[in-house]
Amino acid sequence: MDSKAEDRILLEETFYVLSKKSSVFKVRLTFKGLHLIKDSEQHFKEQIIPIKDIIGCQCLRSKRKTKNCTCQSLPRSDSLQVVEENSTDSDDSDTSAYLYIYAYIIQGNKETNKKRERTIITLRFRSFDRYEDNNKEAQRWRSVIKRLIKGEPLNNFTLNEFSLTHRHRETRRLLVLCNPKSGAGKGKQIFQQKIAPIINEAEIPYDLHMTKYANFARDFVRTHNLFQWTGIVVVGGDGIVFEAINGIFERYDWADVIKTIPLGVVPGGSGNGLARSIAHYASEPYLPAPTLPAALAAVRGTSEPMDLVRVETTSQILFSFLSVGWGLLSDIDIESERLRVLGGTRFTIWSIARLLGLRSYRGKLWYLPSDIPISKSNDKFASPINTGSTLELPAEVHLETEEGRPRVDSWYSAHSRRSAYFSTGGSSYQSTTDSKLGEGDVPNSKDKTRRMYGPASQLPSLTTSLPDDWKCMDGRFVMVHASYQTHLGEDCLFAPEAKLNDGRIWLLVVKYGASRTQLLQFLLGLSTGAHAINNNRSSGEYIKLIPVNAFRIEPDMTENGYITVDGEHVDYGPIQAEIFPELGRVMVP
Known about the structure:
By secondary structure, this protein is an alpha+beta fold. The chain has three domains: 3-64 and 81-169 and 389-415, no CATH class; 174-306, Probable inorganic polyphosphate/atp-NAD kinase, domain 1 (Rossmann fold, 3-Layer(aba) Sandwich), CATH 3.40.50; 320-376 and 451-581, Tumour Suppressor Smad4, CATH 2.60.200.40. Helix content is 21%, strand content 31%. The chain has 13 helices and 26 strands. The strands form four sheets. It has a ten-stranded mixed sheet. Strands 13, 14, 15, 16, 19, 22, 23, 24, 25 and 26 form a ten-stranded antiparallel sheet that branches. Residues 422-458 are annotated as: Disordered. It is found in: Endomembrane system. Its EC number is 2.7.1.91. It is an enzyme of class 2 (transferase).
């Protein structure tokens, strides 16, 4: 869309400041977003709330006031209370229609201090004597905003001739799988307090299922009719993501599911590597609200292809989204499970323990180098933030029309009250928390035997020799760790150059012989990615970061150790992996 079309005014109303009739405010809706414009003789200020920052809007009514009891010690608050349009608890004496617009606006200019602030724009329509007329005007604005959010076409009927019988209907429905015991055991609390309110603000229906045992999510995804949902959102750590992805590949219709039903990842575990990598890829602020990027991605319905890796051991085939590890980092991951209650701090504590009691492992590492050029930037999602914004909106902005006027001219007032991530007023939207949905006509639904499907391997069998164009390292290793995402955890920037879909595996090799000082610098560098910047410099003889398409590890079976896939413990022995570019699909904010 060209700039002229983007600037086309779809809806517009004029507002006045109550105490200063000379100060005029205009509210415009364009394809760019919602424009709040203050125009006076001395100043011209404009705040644009981009459409991409608006997640939803709801039409509400004022709530019936309750009479104060004579024994009540505290007076009733005068703050506005609202209910749903058809609520029996609405105040019939107030003919106003309230349109609540929910936005999450990026604040701050530097990467280190950028964050999203929740802002509510309240449009109170009360120009007409009847609620039905005011509601018609509010519904017209709501309908256009909803279509802009979803990228749907607009027509003159939508803009000018809105009927109350013509309501915007949400066609999406989300499946939410939540692990209540993930991380520090706050998975359920994270969903209820951080995710559900945002989904409710966007008015998107969902079905919520709490995992009840290990591999619950894997069995659920394998046996249910997933096509009744338009997306799967998992709440927890990387473990539940692993279950969901491998459950998909245990269906013979995996190809249809993996391409048409994107996966959303809400961080609630100790590591949260994929959730952190997705936010990094989209240049989305992750801290101080790590669950917010995932919630915004889920309600906006945007997704991107993601590379997956087919992993083969002597006993099983798996599909990996994050990493394969052997040695130091895998030891830390598995052995620190006893400290799970500490959350991410467990990794720091066990890193010190393993550095003091350093181990090494003998074996062979084979790899096929990548011939894809390394990209130095990812500007795909980069965009100017709130260009021209000068009003600095508070957390809540209220605009009211003046009673008895033929058009929607009004006065402006604003007050600041920081809000938690909960639905506004008394509105609530219930989810099916204990769904009675049947399994449907789904492959494998009654077959308890696990069969792994997915694309066929392009590599020789694990028990056969590899071609001559593969490179080999033979000796003792402190660790070999492969990742296809930028982050292994929230504070572990493992492969700074990685992308969600760059078709590469980043193979980090630490050979035996590196000093403890070098290893300490390496571990400290993981938090900022400095280990990759210093690659092949001071420790280049022992520590290397290599982009590859495939690899094979053959550990010496006379020794014991750990091998992990996405943080999950697998049998110790030969293992090989190969990249499948853009095989999966994930929700991206």
